[in-house]
Design a protein that fits this description.
Oligomer: single chain
CATH superfamily: Vaccinia Virus protein VP39
CATH topology: Rossmann fold
Structural class: alpha+beta
Shape: globular
CATH architecture: 3-Layer(aba) Sandwich
Radius of gyration: 15 Å
Number of strands: 7
Number of helices: 3
Order of helices and strands: HEHEEEEHEE
Largest sheet: 3 strands, antiparallel
Distance between the termini: 26 Å
């Protein structure tokens, strides 16, 4: 899974996306997305990053990345990994329902966002 919702960058961006999608989609339309539940990690470097985010007042899944290839450094960018519980909460707050369709052991999951 490619963690397709990551492009929204942060929780504020996710909420904005859900509001905007409500206006665009047909009432029977759905959103299929995948993400990663970072709460399942046991890797010390990931736990340290999450603790740093919390200390800075950020959500644990707000990631800042910068790519390098053959000495060329790209522009920094943000990516969101949202856990299923937070996704469900934000979906409800914006008038959607959320079902988790599939979960993998590594924390990857597939979700369906839909109207009632």
């Amino acid at each position: 899974m490619g963690r397709s919702i990551g492009f929204v960058e942060d929780l504020k961006g996710l909420k904005k996306f859900l509001h905007y999608s409500k206006k665009l989609l047909h009432p029977d339309g759905i959103i299929l997305l995948d993400s990663l539940d970072l709460r399942l990690t046991e890797r010390p470097e990931h736990l340290a990053y999450q603790a740093r985010n919390l200390k800075l007042g950020r959500y644990i899944g707000e990631i800042e990345l910068q790519m390098e290839y053959k000495g060329y450094l790209g522009e920094p960018f943000k990516l969101l990994h949202v856990d299923p519980d937070t996704l469900n909460k934000l979906a409800q707050e914006t008038g959607w329902f959320c079902n988790i369709l599939d979960k993998e052991e590594n924390g990857s999951y597939l979700a369906k966002i839909f109207n009632s």
